[in-house]
Amino acid sequence: xxxxxxxxxxxxxxxxxxxxxxxxxxxxxxxxxxxxxxxxxxxxxxxxxxxxxxxxxxxxxxxxxxxxxxxxxxxxxxxxxxxxxxxxxxxxxxxxxxxxxxxxxxxxxxxxxxxxxxxxxxxxxxxxxxxxxxxxxxxxxxxxxxxxxxxxxxxxxxxxxxxxxxxxxxxxxxxxx
Length: 177
Description:
Blueprint: E1 8-11, H1 18-29, E2 32-35, H2 36-44, H3 48-72, E3 77-80, H4 89-98, E4 100-105, H5 108-115, H6 129-147, E5 150-153, H7 159-175
Parallel strand pairs: 1-3, 1-4, 2-3, 4-5
């Protein structure tokens, strides 16, 4: 059962629409929108690919965990998390304790089409990015589902259509005893 802090946390793989949907949802619900990756970039003064290059994935994940601990303790926010945030049990615990977790689920094929030209995704800078996305999906999908209060299939629908469906599901969840 989600905690009623007014927080909504979006989880899902890169390209699932967490930032796009999160901004719309926050505006519509009069909440503050925060993207954890953008917040890390703002505070460090460098982009995520550079953090990966200098500190490795482990260094980035440590920064991400500290950021999620801080941000999840706020109230009345919509937080778009990085795709790998769920890898750390502490992040899953913080998200689950402090708000409603929404998993934006998408098929690997759709994620690939949305991210294939984006050079700012360090984990996709491989010889076969589509295969890498598939590996990430297999690894992370069970973790997203484990903490999700709501699972939304992003599919082919527009962000606005998804927003209205998500709003309905959030209202239904909040009305449950």
